[in-house]
Amino acid sequence: MDKVLELKNVTKDYGDFKLDNVNLSVTKGAICGFIGQNGAGKTTTISLILDIIKRDAGDIQVFGEDILENPTAIKERIGVVFDEMGFHDFMTATQISKMMANIYKNWDEEVFFDYLEKFSLPRKKRCGAFSRGMRMKLQIAVAMSHGAELLIMDEPTSGLDPIVRNEILQIFQEFVMEENHTILLSSHITTDLERIADEVVFINKGKIVLAGNKDEILETHGLMKCKKNDLTGIDEKDIISTRPSAFCTEVLVADRQACAKKYPKVTMEQTTLEDIMIFYVNRGSQVSANGESSDTKETSTLED
Amino acid sequence: MIMKGLLIKDYYCLKKSLKSFLALTIGVILIGIMFAISMEHGNMKIAAAGTAVEAGVDEATVFDMFRVAVWLVIIIPMAFVGNVVDCFKADMRADFGKQLFSLPVDSKQIVAARYLTCIIYALVSFVGATITAICISSASEQYPFSELMSVAILFGSIMMIYLCFVMCLIYLIGVKYADYIQSAPLLIVMIIAMVFSNVKMMNMSEAELDSLVENMWGTVKGFMTQNVGVFMLVAVVILVITYFASVQIVEKRRGKAIC
Asked: Which of A128, B103, B141, B180 counts the most CB atoms within 10 A of its CB?
């Protein structure tokens, strides 16, 4: 399958935080969810992809080219949405369109104004007076009005109410209906990604801990509900991490079907992306608490 | 074409200040005309004559120093400096750095657009200064148009040199330190001038001091008005050097250069 975006061994070291040998790829035509808790490295990764910050090591290929070799031509084909609107508060949508028309070669004012109408955004109101949802919609309108093939979005639904979030997610699904359109969407709202993502990548403390097809990840991972006695009988190699609750201990396993056969007396349930994220994050804490280096744990990858 | 988009953005940043710039120019013109008429026929002429007698200084020198209207024209090029720096501050407030570097623009275009904004605004201030000079010189024969324009061009060049260094330092250190960067050169020059003048004047007699005042004013004025061309040339050279330095800084610092 064609890869629109590939990161190989990308590293960025800030001293107190390090993005460490990140390997990530996004398939053409897919919606890739980039999940991690706050401070995991999602924004740093996106900033490196867009060359907003310089990488210390590694290779970033967008549309098959290194972003550093031809940044302006590549960025013509990328639409970007940040968690905070980066336009000046005193600018109106019309003024933003005038600015963008003289920056992007393929800027389509008609498409932009159509999106404004669709999103019920006023043309002549200063965007400083927009609500958070309106600002996000404005950014999306800008990102989708210059013929972009790849949308890169950094927590676009964060802080939005469910109705606006639903609206925006529908727009994303419509966007990828065209064959050459792809989305990389970072979020810590896992329910959004469960709804629309085709692929997911988990990042924790600057490292990729899990990557692959979303449905496969949800299908293969499982949540076992164990009593204390049952827990001792479970092979450590099968355990991702554990979480004690009032009545039992919950155990995340990477191979649900195999574990269901191996431990027939233990209750096995389907899990959610949120649970998977929490358990993988906890795994890092549990490993650190045991005094082992989390670097010794290999990244789990589910390849097609 | 890409730079045009960034110039349009800077225009929207400066749109409000253009109105206050117009008001400032009108104010300078009116005050300048008032000073010119007063110096020829009114209270300023009487005050200058009185000062010359009290200080025991040559009347022509005092009258020259009291020709305030000449120095009013420097307000206009000085005003444009602060306004261009406002573009940097506006970008920082909007967190425009991330947006900017996600656009299909490179460091050269980003810096060139900002320098072009500076030049365009300098030309606007030059037009303002020219109109001011025309109005004041029409009000009084004591203020020839050529003298007023020399002063305006001279200070415009000095302000351009100052602004080029300020812009380069803002890219290097960051926009949040813009106020310190703008103040630092002025403070340094003032401190040097104070220290130099105190050290030099400590051992001088009263007669020597009077002579120094008379000669210094004439010397400084003569040097500045006879070397307008030199200052213009230096301004152009500094502009080119700081442009290339700024491109290197922005290329290295990327999004942080706009923060």
From this structure: B103
